[in-house]
Design brief:
single chain; 451 residues; mainly beta; 4-stranded antiparallel sheet; 30 strands; 2% helix; globular
């Protein structure tokens, strides 16, 4: 029996399409050069792993491989893929056209790297770094790289040199996390997801990538942090996933939202509610639609699902438009980062925890098993039909004590990050070091696409 009629209505609503998007498939450009795997818009068939790019181990890495990492991003101007790599305390740069490693970009003082809880038994993501990364062109034509760190700071670098320009604190106790850039106004937004209450900082970026804080936005309505942000050039607004706006901080409820933020005033102009999702990832697709990556798997009665649930899992993702109308895409579990590829008109999800992952059946937490390595998921969603095309296996590994090494000790790692290059339709998914995926013994970037 449901506690409230509104809850019943919301559960029933999950199984009916409330909005539909239409879009034409954008043509991809044929690439030339040294990229042996470069693709065109004529590529057909299922998405699969094309090849991997091994990640070199930095001298400061005490675990012998890349296990801890966070958000990734492809710069569409230079076709460069960037990853917040905690194990190597750097932002890793890769050529997204040729599929080759370029370098580790480090900060001064150094990025936080992988940090543990006080007992040393688990990673404390709230103080680790780097985290979110993005790029943006400022008015002078200078290309800038931005990265959030575990001590609430944001660091900027001039590209292509990778030289550090600026470092500022957003004033929080915990990490500066995911971010997005407004090229029209030269404004960066960065979320402090782990502070209570969570907040975002709007940062003005100068012509040489220098940074000055412009506005602080406190999400007093949020009960479970604030996550991925995107910039929409049509509405001239930032959109940010807020996993929960219901319940309490101790017990977040099932209603989350997409916050619509005016970059100039720093005001949350409205919230677009989403039920049974806890949105984390967010990607702008065709016709003013977004994919909200749901971070929690609910069951068919609207309760969080776990391996011991007596009800069936109902894994979902959500497509929502700027009016707040949304529909559910069934079949994919909890996602962190999501991305849209205009080259093939598909959304992609970095799904590290799904009903298909290893779960301790006796547990009520729904957490990934700490004893078994297992498949994660790259979700492939058609942005026109708003339906699931495919789930592609990726990989998670458990932690091994001691978590900071020496080998064989290492922290747990999960394939929760995804980014795309629309010019060759490559999809980049970082994998923790493992012996199941070729070329990944020290960690790698899996490059996915259609043959």
């Amino acid at each position: 029996m449901f506690r409230h009629d509104s809850l019943l209505n919301a559960v029933l609503r999950k199984h009916f399409r409330l909005s539909a998007a239409t879009a034409g498939v954008a043509s991809a450009l044929l690439l030339t050069g040294s990229g042996a795997w470069a693709q065109t818009s004529t590529a057909t068939g299922p998405v699969s792993l094309l090849f991997t790019i091994p990640v070199p181990v930095a001298a400061s890495n005490t675990t012998g491989g890349m296990y801890g990492f966070d958000i990734s991003w492809v710069d569409p101007v230079t076709q460069t893929y960037y990853l917040g790599d905690r194990s190597n305390a750097a932002v890793d740069a890769f050529n997204a056209n040729t599929g080759t490693f370029i370098r580790h970009i480090t900060a001064t003082p150094p990025f936080a790297g992988v940090k543990l809880n006080a007992a040393g038994t688990a990673v404390n993501n709230n103080i680790s770094g780097p985290n979110g990364v993005t790029t943006g062109l400022v008015g002078s034509g200078q290309n800038c790289l931005f990265a959030g760190d575990g001590d609430s700071r944001v660091v900027s670098f001039a590209l292509p040199s990778g030289s550090q320009v600026s470092s500022l604190s957003t004033g929080g106790l915990f990490r500066a996390d995911e971010m997005a850039f407004d090229p029209k106004d030269g404004l960066l937004i960065a979320a402090n997801n782990a502070d209570s209450p969570p907040f975002a900082t709007v940062i003005a970026v100068g012509p040489r990538c220098g940074m000055v804080i412009s506005k602080k936005i406190t999400f007093s309505f949020a009960t479970n942090g604030a996550e991925q942000a995107v910039w929409d050039p049509t509405t001239q607004r930032f959109y940010m996933s807020v996993p929960s706006i219901s319940g309490t901080t101790a017990t977040p409820g099932p209603t989350g939202a997409i916050a619509v933020i005016n970059p100039l005033t720093g005001i949350v102009e409205k919230q677009l509610p989403i039920n049974y999702c806890m949105p984390a990832g967010l990607a702008l697709g065709p016709n003013q639609t977004f994919l909200a990556g749901c971070s929690v798997v609910y069951d068919t009665l609207g309760d969080p699902w776990s391996g011991s649930d007596t009800n069936t899992a109902d894994p979902l993702q959500v497509i929502i438009d700027t009016t707040g109308a949304y529909s559910y895409v069934s079949g994919i579990g909890s996602s962190d980062e999501v991305a849209f590829n205009s080259g093939d008109n598909h959304f992609y999800t970095g799904t590290s925890n799904s009903p298909y992952s290893a779960h301790p059946v006796a547990s009520k937490t729904g957490a990934t098993s700490t004893t078994d390595q297992a498949a994660a998921i790259l979700g492939v969603i058609d942005a026109t039909s708003q339906t699931l095309d495919q789930i592609v296996p990726t990989f998670n590994v458990p932690g091994v004590m001691p978590l900071l090494g020496p080998p064989p000790g290492h922290p747990a790692g999960s394939s929760h990050s995804v980014a795309v290059n629309a010019l060759n339709n490559w999809v980049f998914v970082p994998h923790p070091a493992n012996n199941a995926i070729p070329g990944c013994l020290t960690g790698c970037i899996g490059v996915y696409g259609r043959q």
